[in-house]
Amino acid sequence: MSTSTPTSSGLTAPWKSAFLEHLNKMPSPEFVFSSLHTAPAGSPTPYIPSARYCIFRGFWAELPENKHNEAPMNPRVYESEMPTFTSDVRMQKVPEIFKSSAGHAKNDSQAQGSGGGGPVEAVWWIKEVGTQWRMRGEAFVIGQDIEGGRGDVHGEVSSGVRTVKSEVGSRMRMVDEEKGEAGEWSWGKELTAHFGNNSPGLRGTFRNPPPGTPVPSSGQPPSDHAPGQKVTDLHDPIARANFRVVVIKPSVVEQLDISDPVKARRYRYTYVGESGEHDGEKEKIEGEWLREELWP
């Protein structure tokens, strides 16, 4: 395995099983992902909200088995409570994650590799059980440089890669120490497995014309970026150059249960870490999370 070994040794989040149980009742695990877009010059605030629908692709390091996925899979060495989805680096959400982060990327060219850390929210409405789930935290982007393939001139990995492996790795729990010590798990393999988890048609969208760019007067796209392609090569150079996995590292998770108006409740889980310290509320701490029962 590459450097920066995951460090978390905590317990499974108390909200995780209910969250997955509810998502399994959805026809498709769609959610609204909100990030911060740089506001136009002269605006009274530096950012404006930007939201879109995405598809939940499982928790990081726990990619679900898919008989149609031909990519090599990592063994189940780690688990986490960090939701993932896939994106095209050319879409606005990726540079938004970088530009709103502590690193404050100044332009899109600084958002081409792994990194990020900008503040985000994700919201699922599961009408089948009358419950809304909302997660607030930071998002990190994983690209092809995650194994050091695009390091600097000295052959070192980028600061973005180090950030991802440190921040995401801190919330990955080892569940198979033997395989973990044998180095059988890798970030690059997990990235390729996510690419393979998409259908050939969806993989083909990463060869589409750049999102949001004008259609030429001819109405014809560049020959190597035509819409509707199907990609079967797991290492297609154009598709993989644009493919990214986004990992949400939640700090607050809320479950709003309004299935019964009389018993409606909001449950808020705040991440407090392994120390479990949070203003003396130890009686409410479950594992690494502070649980609060609130009115909706």
Descriptive labels:
alpha+beta, about 300 residues, nine-stranded antiparallel beta sheet
Provide structural commentary:
This protein has 296 residues and is α+β, with helices and mostly antiparallel strands. Helices cover 17% and strands 27% of the residues. The longest helix is centred in the middle third of the chain and has 11 residues, at 187-197.
Quickly count the helices: 7
Sheet having the most strands: 9 strands, antiparallel
Order of helices and strands: HEEEEHEEHEHHHHEEEE
User: How large is the radius of gyration?
Assistant: 20 Å
Strand proportion, as a percent range, falls in: 25-35%
Low-pLDDT parts are 150-154
- Name the overall outline: globular
Q: What's the β-strand tally?
A: 11
Spatial separation of the terminal alpha carbons: 44 Å
Question: What average pLDDT do the residues reach?
Answer: 92
Q: Give the fraction of residues assigned to helices.
A: 10-25%
Structural class: alpha+beta
Helix-strand layout with pairing:
Blueprint: H1 16-23, E1 30-38, E2 47-55, E3 78-79, E4 84-88, H2 93-99, E5 115-126, E6 131-142, H3 159-167, E7 173-174, H4 177-181, H5 187-197, H6 200-204, H7 237-242, E8 243-257, E9 265-271, E10 285-286, E11 289-294
Antiparallel strand pairs: 1-2, 1-5, 3-7, 4-8, 5-6, 6-8, 8-9, 9-11, 10-11
